[in-house]
Amino acid sequence: MEDHVSPTHATARFAGVLYLLFAILAVVGYMVIPGRFVVAGDAAATATRITEGVTLYRVGILAALAGHVLFIFLVLALYELFKDVDRNQARLMVVLVCVGATAEIVNLANRMAPLVLLSDVGPAPALTRPQLELLSLGFLRLGNSLAQLLTVFWGLWLFPFGMLTIRSGFFPKVLGVLLLISGVAYVVTCVVRLVFPAQFHVIAPIVSPLYLGEVVMVLWLPIMGARVPARAKTSIPISTP
Questions:
Q1: 238 within some domain
Q2: Would 239 be classed as within a structural domain?
């Protein structure tokens, strides 16, 4: 007996697995692990936590790095899924993700800086320990600020992704609309944090629920895959007992 799985459905499921893994690594690498080390406004406490838990700190950086690498492979899988829908939109989606992910990978150098500054390896430093601790916290704050700025790319790529989702017929159109709404939320967050940082607490409760649109897609892809319009169905036979 043979079951038939369309290439489109298989590609969507594969992209969904990558999307889910990326989301998990992003949460671990940017929220869970860093939250155990950074003590706001306390350079000495932050430095102590990093030096005492250096292995876990490095794992956090590795998780973030792996997540961005997976993100690039994810968007390439999505390109394969959508290239026959609108090749230009699919290419734009790839460019936005690759630029954003590359910038985020470079930004991880700011999280590596404390490992260098607080290391006892090498000649005696010209700066005192408290100065090195302050400098380390400064690099972490700079990295966080750059990460907030780069959220604009996490919004922009959702616009071609959302439009392709709507136009393709592979998914319910509402998923595309939710992606567009999430894209707006990311862009608004970036602009407000950059121009009106003191007012971010006002809009945060409004925009935060809008991110859930992307979460729906993260779960939909690996679980449901893509439906294939009847005119486009081409099957790959998979033998089963």
A1: no
A2: no
Q: Which two tokens stand for residue 5?
A: 């799985």
Question: Mapping DSSP to helix (H, G, I), strand (E, B) and coil, where does residue 125 land?
Answer: coil
CA atoms within 13 A on the CB side of 193: 17
Helix (H, G, I), strand (E, B) or coil at 4: strand
* Count of domains forming the chain: 1
Write the CB contacts of 182 (distance below 8 Å, at least 6 apart in sequence). 155, 158, 210, 211, 212, 213, 214
Is there a contact between 193 and 204 (Cβ–Cβ < 8 Å)? no
Counting beta carbons within 10 angstroms of the beta carbon of residue 111, is it exposed (0 to 12), middle (13 to 18) or buried (19 or more)? buried
80, 11 Cβ separation under 8 angstroms:
yes
Question: For residue range 137-172, what is the model confidence (pLDDT) as tens digits?
Answer: 999 999 999 999 999 999 999 999 999 999 999 999
Domain range for 19 is 2-223
- Is 167 part of a structural domain of the chain? yes
Place of tokens 């033998």: 239
Three-state DSSP class for residue 237:
strand
Q: Which residue has the tokens 């400098």?
A: 135
Contacts of 68 (CB under 8 A, 6+ apart): 101, 102, 104, 105
- C-alpha 93/C-alpha 155 separation (Å) is 11
What is the pTM assigned to this prediction? 0.87
In a domain, 177, yes or no: yes
d(CA 57, CA 50): 6
